[in-house]
Amino acid sequence: MRRALLAGLLGVAAIGAQAAEPARPSPLKEGSDFQSADVRALQADDFANPMALWVARGETLWGEARNGRSCSGCHGRAEASMKGVAARYPRWDAGLGRVVSLPERINACVERQQDAPRLAAESDDLLGIEAYVARQSRGIPLAVSIDGPAHPAWEAGRALYFTRIGQLNLACTQCHDRSWGRTLLGETVSQGHPTGWPAYRLEWQRAGSLERRLRACFNGVRAAMPPYGSPDLVALELYLAWRAQGLPLESPAVRR
Amino acid sequence: MSMLGRLQVPPAVRRGDVFEVRVIVQHPMETGFRRDMNGREIPLNIVDRLACTYGGREVFRVEPGSGISANPYFVFPVVASASGEVAVEWRDDRGATGRVTAMVNVVES
User: CA B89: distance to chain centroid?
Assistant: First the structure.
C-alpha cells in the first residue's frame, strides 16, 4: 500500500518534471531536413522551384512605381539593401509602435510611403515582394532581437508556444520539442523552425506565408485560427524565429 | 500583371545537339471538382493549351487537362538546328494568355 502510494507520488513528480520547459531541440534542424529528397531537390533547383515565379513577380513589383514611388526608389537594388533583412524579422518597429512581421512591414511601406491601399494577406503581390526580399537573405542565419521593446511580444509568443489549445488540447512544444523526428500519420514532425517562409507548399499548390502555415497548425489542433496579422501570430513568429536563431534562412523554400 | 511564366534554355548549343527547354507557368489549374469553405463550387480554370516554337516552327504542344498540377512545369528536348528564338505561348479556358521567349545560339562544333 505504502509502496503503491510512493510509486504514485513519484509518477506525479515525473509529470511535474516533464512540464518544465524543455531545452531547444538539439541538434537544430531546418525545415528542409524533414522533407523528402524530391522536395529538397525541387527547392534546390532555382528554375524548377515554383517559388521562383513569386520571386520574379516581386522583382517586377520592386521596380514598379505606385503613386510615383517604387520600392527601388528608396531602397535601391534589393540585392544590396535587403541582404539579411528578412533574417531579422519579426522586429520592433518604432514608427508603428509594435512588433511587426515582414509582410506587415512591407504593407506599412505601401501605406506610408506609396500612399496606396494595403496589399491583401496571402495575395500574390504581397507574397511576391516578401519572397523577393527573403530571397536576398538566403543562407544568412536568423538573428532576431528580443531585447527592449520587443521583449513583451517574445514573452507572449513563448507563453502561447507552451499553452495547450484546441479540442486536441495540444501545445506547440508537445510536437515540436518532444516528438520531432517521429511520424504523425504519413509525415515526419519537424522542429517547427520558420526558416523557409514564404514557401511553396505542395498541399496548397501555391505560395503561402508563415502565418498561413501557423493558422493551419491552429486548425490542426482544432483551435480557433487567429486572423492574419494578429498580435498572437506575430508574437509566436517572433518566438519561433528566436528559437531557430543560428539556422540559415532558406526561403523561398518548398514544403510538402 | 499578366500571366507569369519562366523559360530556360541553354545560352549556346552545338548544331545537332539535343538541348532541354524548361518552362513553368503560374496558374491555379482549378479542376472544377473542388468546393470552397462555404461549400460553393470553385469553377474550372485550367491552361488547356501550351505550345512552343523554335525558329518559327512548332516543336512541342500540350493540351493539359485537370489532372495537371497548379503552376505546371514542362521539360522537353529539342534538336538544335539553327540559332533562333524559342517562344512558348499558352492560354487558359477563360482566354487569358501568356508568352515567354528566349534566344538559342547555335555554334558549329
Answer: 6
The three grid cell numbers given for residue A248, joined into one nine-digit string: 540559415
Which residue has 539535343 as its cell numbers? B18
A residues 12-41 near B, CB within 8 Å?
Answer: none
Bridge partners of residue B61, in order along the sequence: B51
Is A205 an 8 Å CB contact of chain B?
A: yes
Residue B98 C-alpha cell reads as 501568356
Name which of A47, A212, A225 to mutate to probe chain B: the one with the most chain B Cβ atoms within 10 A of its Cβ: A47
d(CA B70, CA B88): 18
Q: How much is the ipTM here?
A: 0.83
CA atoms of B9 and B86, how far apart (whole Å) = 8
Give the CATH architecture of domain B5-107: Sandwich (2.60)
- CA B21 to CA B86: how far, in whole Å? 9
- Which grid cell is A203? 498541399
The per-residue pLDDT for range A41-57, each reduced to its tens digit, is: 988 888 889 999 999 99
Condensed to tens digits (0 to 9), the pLDDT of residues A201-242 reads 999 999 999 999 999 999 999 999 999 989 999 999 999 999
Alpha carbon distance A51, A103 (integer Å): 16
- B73/A50 Cβ within 8 A: yes
Contact B24, A45 (CB under 8 A): no
Supply A256's cell numbers.
Answer: 510538402
* Selected residue of B21, B42, B73, B74 to mutate for chain A interface (largest A Cβ count, 10 A): B73
The CATH number given to A30-255 is: 1.10.760.10
